[in-house]
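Quality-control log, excerpt.
Job 1 of 2 completed; input and output follow.
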Amino acid sequence: MRALLLINPRAGSESPTTEELAQAARNRGIDVHVLGEDDDPVELARAADAEILAAAGGDGTVAGVAAVAVERDLPFVVVPFGTRNHFARDVGLDRDDPLAALEAFDGEERHVDVGRAGERRFLNNVSLGIYAALVHRREHHRRRRQALAGVRALWLSLLRKRGVWATVDGEPVRARVLLAANNGYELSLFSIGVRERLDEGRLYLYRARGVLPRTWEEEPGKRFTLDSPTGRVEAAVDGEPVELATPLELAVEPGALRVLLPRRQD
């Protein structure tokens, strides 16, 4: 089967190098495209003459290509090549060994759930509230090379009291942090842990009221409707800053992604 691997060289991995990963994939007969500054991995995946789609990068790159794999009903391979690689970890890959993930091209297929925020699919989570605001401000100031000053200013502003800024299924949201997750997470103070399952077929909505959340309110479900007075919300979808129109349906698509994984060793 013809496979295409899209590699994001700016995702954060240092070992192996982009060239080493690309050559290892080509040695397996896989077509490789190293993303340039102006390349859109989503559009490249949509136009690809391939029977397997794959992405090497962080969670943002991986999620975009995986969404196309769902659209096209194609198998998908994830190669951990970014900083955190949450999805790769939760499907059982070694985040420190991108080369081993290439075994998945001859591996076993597994169906996992995909989340959806409006028309945008996600693999891990959608964060709203102060987390999302920090991601947006960090990205804005990173481009202007003023990241530390910008994030500090935002953080100080967030310490002020804030009232109702959104509703979920018509109920006011007073929590400072709102997280919609594709399956259930282990959560702690400013830490998103692992997911035991990716095939439960549930979306989990987590709320934390404090600036430093020590406890999370958990609500599982199939779908939720988020609304806001302004008609839009800042969000971080799999770590990528986006602005989403409201009302916004948050939902789960059970078993929508066909993930290829290395065969288990007996």
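Job 2 of 2 completed; input and output follow.
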Amino acid sequence: MNDDTTRAALSEVRSRELYARACRVIPGGVSSPVRAFRAVGGTPLFIARGAGQYLYDVDGRRYLDLVNSWGALILGHAHPVVLEAMTQACRSGTTFGAPCPAEVELAERITASYPGLEQVRFVSSGTEAVMSAIRVARAASGRDLIVKFSGCYHGHADHLLVAAGSGLATFGRPSSAGVPAAFAAATRVLPLDDEEALQALFAAEGARIAAVIIEPTPANHGLLLQRRAFLQALAKITAQHGALLIFDEVISGFRLARGGVAELTGITPDMATFGKVIGGGMPVGAFGGARRLMAHLAPEGDTYQAGTLSGNPVAMAAGLVTLDLLTADSIWQRLETLGAALETMLAPVLAAAPFAVRLVRAGSLFWLCLDEDAAPRRAVTLGPRAVQRFAALFHAMLARGVYLPPSAYEVCFLSASFGEEDLQYFANALKESLLIAAQAP
């Protein structure tokens, strides 16, 4: 352990105390697995507050935040206008279990922004959004099979926690304990960017496939930028076989553009799912599509979906003001400018790195890829050396006050609160940290 890492560890007294307490009452001491630092080692930081581009832990240390609540905080932490909107909403009540005006307004904003969207329904998470969209797809098509892609994460619903096997396509198998094999058997898994495998699967089972779901910009197994031609092939083959195409834009929606990847590519899916940005930092998800599809939902149709906190007034207020600020302040353009500036700053740093590391970027999303080969479009398994180097890199950056996602497979997020000086600080810290990571055992 180098001196910087040792000093950082010694300053985490309060975090270590809280983690010990948490492990007694919370499984693994965390409420979501990646927070446990198992992939990088060490004790997870407990955060006291956030402000703009910074996080502050319970031991008083400040960090430049490249996680931003896994992309939800596109405006940064504790944005004053968002906080004021939430405060005003709270004064009238936090939840009603009944319709409220703000959910109508937010639904209008979303449907007006995203191509082909006529109706949306709100839920409380991205997992719920995807689970519900798939239920609608099955109801609308009268079919059972779902196709997903290796490397795309769609939440932790049983039928989507499957992994790919060998061959062009595979019957799903559970990749989590507690998922019955029968559930996973209704899911097919394909490799990304493989039109031949796609054609083969539809030739064999096209009449049984209800929907194909994809992150059009996969950002949960690294940043796996897809060719527009591949996404077009998905749209074409699903239309030919009467299956639905679902874009999971929980991460990319309203972050990469007002209309997400659908707007950027000109490809309109049958349904789409959203989360992160549309909640303005609150737990919100949504799924939507054409009116004819959404009509399958109760109370109009016979497809059941419900949620007590869905469309609650505080979350809706946060989402509304966030989307308004994104539009009024040209935030998407600003984020692209920031991302491009960071890419320019990092070019000489990465070129001089003592081992292979590449920047993969889409707007304000970026991934430091430690794979030896070219930046991949398909899910890859990083070797032990790359994983060890990332763990060392993570802790070296942490010692320099930069908070990266604690996994070599997770992407980083810029927020609109970043300035050029923050990007330069990141670049300088990375230059020093790469030298330390190269010495990892």
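Post-run check on job 2. Residues 163-172 have pLDDT under 50 and may be disordered.
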